[in-house]
UniProtKB/TrEMBL annotation:
Keyword Membrane carried by entry: yes
Membrane disposition: Multi-pass membrane protein
Membrane-traversing stretches: 26-45, 65-86, 93-111, 117-140, 152-173, 179-196, 225-248, 260-278, 285-305, 311-332, 344-367, 373-390
GO cellular component, one term: plasma membrane
Compartments, record wording: Cell membrane
Name the UniProt record assigns to this protein: Arabinose ABC transporter permease
Any GO molecular function: transmembrane transporter activity
Keyword Membrane: yes
UniProt keyword terms in alphabetical order: Cell membrane, Membrane, Transmembrane, Transmembrane helix
Database matches in Pfam families: MFS_1 (PF07690)
Amino acid sequence: MVHRSVRSPTDDAHGTAPDAPSAIRLAAVGMCLVGVCYGLARFAYGLFVPAFREDFDLGPTATGAVASGSYVAYCLAVVAATVLTPRLGARRVAVAAGTVATAGTALVALAPTSAVLGAGVLLAGASTGVASPPLAHAVARTVRAARRDRTQAVVNAGTGLGVAVAGPVALVVQDSWRAAWAVFALLAAATTFWAARVVPPARDDGASVPSLLPRPLLPVRAGRLLLGAAVVGLASAAVWTFGLDLLVTEGGTGPTTARLAWVLLGVLGVLGAAAGDLEARLGPARTWTTTTVALAGATAVLALAPGTPALTHPAAAVFGGSYIAMSGLLLLGGTRVYPDEPSAGVGIAFLVLALGQAAGSLALGALASGTGLRTAVLVAAGVGLLGALAPPRTS
């Protein structure tokens, strides 16, 4: 790194900055902000694909293209948030994330055409890119070292919380998807106000603000970390984009039963908060291999038996827990590979993750149009198994 040394607030005698919130409060608001940005604004799209497909006449290619666009918007946003967080502070950028999520979900709720729907999904997807860097920066700058990894993992598990909330909302409103997205917008707005009160400023002073890009841009351990992020993105795109549609169209599962699988995916995803503790017990390589194989296996089960709830529902739960755990490992890895610029490390890792998901959604949508949805999802499972062979090295 070629910026002046940063003395983290966690280096003082008390372990936190004087105005820093407790780790519990920061973890709570961070988890909820990640929940509305990832679980509602971004990944809830897959939950409503059957309804969108019917109302807007979307085929697999168009469905994948919309999801891919959401991930591309994320990529652009995460670059901006990574650069702006040390300069503007964690609070301002976190509030911006909530504001974008609110606007995106509201636009989806009001969408009169497929073009407006796509614009809303893109805007909502961008919020996730804005959210992760400031939260990672705030935790790294204000939480004691002994609690830092656990707090980062808990915040990251907000994706599961958001998905777990989206499922019951969808069950209540049934086919009234506009009402569901209106509820998402209200939840996003409320969380944004909370973040404005709780997330610490965590702004680096002029002497410690890094250059636009970390130097070196790719440290020694970054290659394996980014390869792992790309593989997770490619492998997970199938379930996030087409999972529920697979159960309904290929498996003949009723909408209510299929949405229950989504609820289980989110509820078990919250257990991904234990990623840091699991890594401490098993070691980084073994934890990565275990979670990658679990994600790939769950994806394969969904493809092979989409009409058997006794198999698909546990598989969805395993997918949720393993995905959140893997993204948590990528987050922790980013803060370790770039210890002086944690927001940059998380931003780069999640940028590559989203690029993988964008490419995966687009490619799998095209593949599904030619060979069928089940084949496309099986291909994604195979990609996940390949990822188990190359665990990231971050310590």
